[in-house]
Amino acid sequence: MKGHAQYPWLFKGAYATYKGATKIAPLPGTFDVTVKIEVKDIDLGNQQVKLHISSTIVQQIWRLRKKVSEKEHEGWIKIGERVLPSATPMILDAEYEGILNIENLGVRTCIIQQWHELKKRKRIVSSCEILFWDKEFNWPIRYMLVFNYKTKYPEGLFLGTVKDALRSAMKSLERAIETGNLGELMTMEETVNRNEFLKEASLILYLKETNIPGLKG
Description:
By secondary structure, the chain is mainly beta. The protein has one domain (15-210). It is built from 1 helix and 9 strands, in the order ββββββββαβ. It has one helix at residues 159-178; strands at 15-22, 30-43, 48-61, 64-78, 90-102, 106-117, 127-134, 139-152, 196-210. It has a 9-stranded antiparallel β-sheet with strand order 4-3-2-1-9-8-7-6-5, with helices on one face. The longest helix has 20 residues, at 159-178. It is globular and about 50 Å long.
């Protein structure tokens, strides 16, 4: 690709898969998240590329695994811009250079971005998203989300409350992955107890598999 030789991912079918896990108390088990970013089309005339993002969320309790979400979406972005397609408005808080030690790749120079979602509803709680872009190839190599979520502990925990909490958590986690920015994870709007607590959790997505030259371990 003339003029874009520094981008080894600029070909149809280029992809990278990221994996991570998070815990959402008081829900049982862990939630394993897998995200795949793939180049679906290239429009050199308009200097843009279409990225397809698919995600899967699996809840694991002991040896039992259950798929609770499977989503996909795509969108066009300008070639060279450090941004992922998103249906939700995002605000860039900071961008700076740093060093990251990547398994099988060694030390990489990164452009680190810190984002937050533009929220319009009072019930949505805060989160901080950090994207690590490989400076040389301009491709994301790690993602980190630190988020707060609201949960309610009734005096006597009963099955219906657990089901409601799980339903709320899954809706928020699905929407977070679906929009491409992972910005909205918990609202817990369906729980009905008067005692409310604000908790913090995190999710890190590590680069696990890719066919992009230079990023393969």
